[in-house]
From TrEMBL:
Annotated family: Belongs to the uracil-DNA glycosylase (UDG) superfamily. Type 4 (UDGa) family.
Keyword field: 4Fe-4S, DNA damage, DNA repair, Hydrolase, Iron, Iron-sulfur, Metal-binding
Origin organism lineage: Bacteria, Candidatus Dojkabacteria
InterPro entries, sorted: UDG_Type-4/5 (IPR051536), Ura-DNA_glyco_family4 (IPR005273), Uracil-DNA_glycosylase-like (IPR005122), Uracil-DNA_glycosylase-like_sf (IPR036895)
Entry protein name: Type-4 uracil-DNA glycosylase
The UniProt record lists the keyword DNA repair: yes
Domain Uracil-DNA glycosylase-like: 32-185
Pfam families for the chain: UDG
Cited SMART domains: UDG (SM00986), UreE_C (SM00987)
EC annotation from Swiss-Prot or TrEMBL: 3.2.2.27
CDD domains in the cross-refs: UDG-F4_TTUDGA_SPO1dp_like
Amino acid sequence: MNIKDFKSLKEIHQYFAVHNTCKLKNTATQPVYETTPPTSGIVFIGEAPGLSEDKLGKPFVGAAGKLLDELLQIIGFTREDVYVTNVVKYRPPNNRDPLDREKDACRVWVNAELLLIKPKVIVPLGRHSLQRFLPELNISTAHGEVHIHSSGTPILPMYHPAAALYNPNLKNTLQEDMVKLKEFLNRKPKKGTSKKKQSIINDILQL
């Protein structure tokens, strides 16, 4: 099936839950995903589901998810306003880092989500997600800044909320970066920067 043909997130997830080659599905309880599109145009992309997410089938429902909710409140958003996903849809064993082949296996799944949502900005959370879009950058130097992907899509990386659970000093950094995200969203678009529908489709497929 061509990913341009999907009409809803639910349809996307139902299809790829069956038609995917990610070996993590052999050890995970279930795929983890959201089915409600964001009202803000913001897409947060984490690294991989954890134990709580694996049990419930929803992204960011554990301690890192609670911190993400707190951070969203700072800029006047709730979870319903944004879309949250991961570069892999299944929990890796023992919460290890996802392997490149596992990320590659879920790549078209994530592309389908982005193509349907057409985000105003993508927020990679952590180094694995950042490498998915801007492999030449390091999260420690790239966070909190807007980087324009070769497709034209704005990318604003942040540390993963889980990192702040182990290093409390990063919580202030996350708060500051969230404010920068709000400032970016409040910018008025320049005239002549709108894209035709086909151009947007081509951009997403490059991600």
